[in-house]
Specification:
Number of helices: 6
Number of domains: 1
Strand order of the largest sheet: 2-1-3-4
CATH architecture: 3-Layer(aba) Sandwich
Shape: globular
Strand content: 5-15%
Structural class: alpha+beta
Largest sheet: 4 strands, mixed
Order of helices and strands: EHEHHHHEEH
């Protein structure tokens, strides 16, 4: 089995089921992972920008998150810059896990994408 050329970096929270699934996915494939716990270290604005440039800010927004409902965000009309600002202010709005391998990124559970990164059949 080939490993990915670029190291895998997973951003998430230890209490997030989706993050746990991602970590288990890579562990089962014996792929080394660098885990960044967003519960202890917030996502840097430059790192968030890397994800928004490739996926768009709306792809990073978790519309199922409790803060999304509490803040009434479904009823707000927001531009990309405002969404990014909200994501930085309230990290619980992020769709987790955020996974990066070199220039490739994903948000949320994306096993098919990760398999492609690892070049699995």
């Amino acid at each position: 089995m080939k490993s990915a050329a670029a190291p895998i970096q997973v951003f998430g929270r230890k209490d997030s089921r989706e993050t746990q699934k991602a970590l288990r996915f890579f562990k089962e494939r014996r792929t080394p992972v660098s885990f960044v716990d967003l519960g202890t270290r917030p996502l840097a604005p430059t790192e968030l920008r890397r994800f928004t440039e490739r996926l768009g800010s709306r792809a990073l927004l978790d519309s199922d998150a409790k803060p999304y409902r509490e803040l009434g965000m479904a009823y707000l009309s927001m531009g990309d810059a405002e969404i990014v600002e909200r994501l930085l202010d309230e990290p619980r709005l992020l769709r987790l896990p955020l996974v990066r391998s070199g220039q490739r990124v994903s948000a949320g559970s994306a096993e098919a994408t990760w398999r492609e990164w690892l070049r699995e059949p």
